[in-house]
Amino acid sequence: MPEGDTIFQVAGRLREALAGRVLRHTDFRVPRHATADLAGREVLGVASRGKHLLIRFSGGATLHTHLRMDGLWRVQPATARIPGNAASGRDFVRVVLANDEYTALGLRLPVVDLLRTADEERVVGHLGPDLLGADWDADEAARRLAAQPARAIGEALLDQRNLAGVGNVYRAELCFLRRISPFARTDEAGDLHAMADLAHRALVANRAQPGHVTTGNPAPGQQHWVYGRAGRPCRRCGTAVRRAESGEPPRVVFWCPTCQPAPDRGGR
Question: Where's the Formamidopyrimidine-DNA glycosylase catalytic domain (predicted)?
Answer without folding.
Answer: 2-96
